[in-house]
Amino acid sequence: MSRERPSSASSAASSASSPVAASDSGPLRSHRPATIDLSPSTFRRVDVSLEAAQRSLTDALRITFGVVWAVLIALIALFLASGFQQVGESERGVTLRFGKVVRENVGPGYTWAWPYPIGEVVRVDVGQRSLDLEEDFWPNLTKGQKQQALQELAGRKRQLVPGKDHANLVAGGALAHTQWRMLYSVSDPARYARAIAAGQEEAIVRALLDQAVVESLAGVTVDELLGQAPGALARLERRVRLRVQELLDRMNAGMQVDQVILRRRTPPLFVLESFNNVTTASAKAAQEREQALRDAQQTLTSVAGQAASALLKLIDNYEQALDAADASRADDALATIDRLLNGEAVAIDGQTVVVSGEVAEIISEARRYRTDVVAQARRRAAAFEAKLPLYRENPRVFTASEWSRAYKAFRDQGVDEAFYLPGNASDVQILLNSDPEIAKRLEEARNTAEAKKAREKAIERQAEEFRRKRREQQSSSSGGGG
Predict the structure, then answer these.
(1) Who's near 418: CB < 8 A, 6+ residues apart?
(2) What are phi and psi of 201, to 5 degrees?
(3) In 433-468, which positions are buried (b, 16+ CB within 10 angstroms) versus exposed (e)?
(4) Using CA atoms, how far apart are residues 448 and 192, in angstroms rounded to an integer?
(5) Disulfide check for 28: which of 23, 35, 89, 296 has CB 3.0–4.6 Å away?
(6) What pLDDT does 309 receive?
(7) Nearest by Cα to 123 from 87, 163, 73
(8) Phi, psi of 144, deg, nearest 5
(9) Are 290 and 345 in contact (CB under 8 A)?
(10) To which H or E segment does residue 346 belong?
């Protein structure tokens, strides 16, 4: 630029000298002043202004680029910060990168992953959840009918309408209505995230539970479904649960079935009353059977005590031995029965048993009777032997004496009334009517005698029980010493 300045100055000088030359050649003319100052100072001022403008532009561009970079860095920071996500206490996270699982089963708390679309954190709720099948296999009822008991609706619906009323088809072609509830949870979040699309979980689980219920009930009868057999309901619920779990595992869903509950079950409403009558009759029969078994056990216990079952087993063995013509085994069984009935402590199947109850009383009474009969027979024999010589000496006197003694004993019993007749009566009518006072005294005497006999029996039973306990103690002592 400094090289161009002299040429510009010479051009200006030559231009300035042109009027002089013209004046020399012709008359002088006036000229207007120049509009552009081309002096060196003017060029210096222009250069300074351009440099300032360039500096301003450079500074502005520098600031603009700085702001752009700051905004870009802030956006990048925000983009990266958006990768921080919180996993709840009842959740587990699955970290994805370009759709591929890079981390599984991320625990509760904050975790970072590349933000979308590079990656994301899929949060899976692993808490237990429930699904109810209330209308899938239930008759079509209005809102008001749903609030009523099934017994109130019995007989109102005369038929099932296809497409509206739903039911289960069980073995044998019968129909029944059921309502179910399933409790389940996510056991493998990664498998769950791969297999279950967002918002499709309930529909998938409901379809699988429906299938499991249909397949399971097809293998049970209506009596097994609606009856009261012990354990039948639990077995059916277990069958449905295992079938649902099998279907979930087949699709690799990563879910676990915790429990399946059969909430309600009923036959079709138009046969509900008849079915209830059958159920009531069956339940009553079962109660009567149970009561009969309890009565039988109570009777056996009252008759033979704790030895009742052992005694029955011995009797069965004895009868089987007789049927098999095994005399030796029959004799052994009979000997053991006799020992047990005689009040001895007998070891059976490793347990020592002693008979008690009515059997012990009957055996004790039989023993007393045997003793009394023998003693009475001996007394009568002794009396006969003592009276025989007297009879031989004078039979008539002996007979009169014995008759008088027997008549006196008869009168002394106090159980009869004597009626005296006049000796000169020609026609006698006897109207028998007991004296109430005498009947009262006789009743009191009988009651007193029975009470005395009962006390004697009670004392004898206590003595027999005491002797039995003594035998048990001696048996246990001898067994322990052995």
Answers:
(1) 411
(2) -60, -55
(3) eeeeeeeeebeeeeeeeeeeeeeeeeeeeeebeeeb
(4) 90
(5) 23
(6) 79
(7) 87
(8) -70, -40
(9) no
(10) strand 346-348
401-427 as b/e, with b when 16 or more CB fall inside 10 Å?
eeeeeeeeeeeeeeeeeeeeeeeeeee
Q: Record the tokens describing residue 152, joined without a space.
A: 């109130």
Q: Which of 367, 145, 182 is nearest to 269 (CA)?
A: 145
Burial of residue 59, with CB atoms counted within 10 A of its CB: 0-12 exposed, 13-18 middle, 19 or more buried: exposed
- Is the bond leading into 117 cis (omega within 30 degrees of zero)? yes
Cβ neighbours, 10 Å, residue 126: 21
pLDDT given at position 217: 94
Q: What is the pLDDT of residue 241?
A: 96
Bridge-based pairing of strands 84-87 and 109-112 is: antiparallel
Extract the tokens encoding 156.
């109102």
Residue 14 region by backbone torsions, left for phi larger than 0, else alpha for psi between -120 and 50, else beta: alpha
pTM of the model: 0.51
| Domain 126-267 CATH superfamily | Band 7 domain (3.30.479.30)
Question: What are the residue boundaries of the structural domains of the chain, listed by start?
Answer: 40-81, 84-123, 126-267, 284-356
Q: Which residues of the chain have pLDDT under 50?
A: 1-29, 481-482
Whether the CA torsion 448, 454, 457, 463 is positive or negative: it is negative
Residue 88: C-alpha distances to residues 92, 196, 258 (Å)? 7, 20, 22
**Residue 429 CB neighbour total at 10 angstroms:** 5
Tokens of 417: 């009334």
pLDDT of residue 194: 83
Give CA 365 to chain center in angstroms.
54
Beta strands in 231-333 (DSSP E): 255-266
- Residue count (the chain): 482
Considering only CA atoms, which of 146, 236, 129 is closest in space to residue 184?
129
Which segments within 134-241 are labelled E, that is strand?
168-169, 175-186
- 129 by Cβ neighbours in 10 Å (0-12 / 13-18 / 19+) ranks as middle
Residue 66 token pair: 């700085």
pLDDT at 218: 92
Which pLDDT belongs to residue 158?
Answer: 64
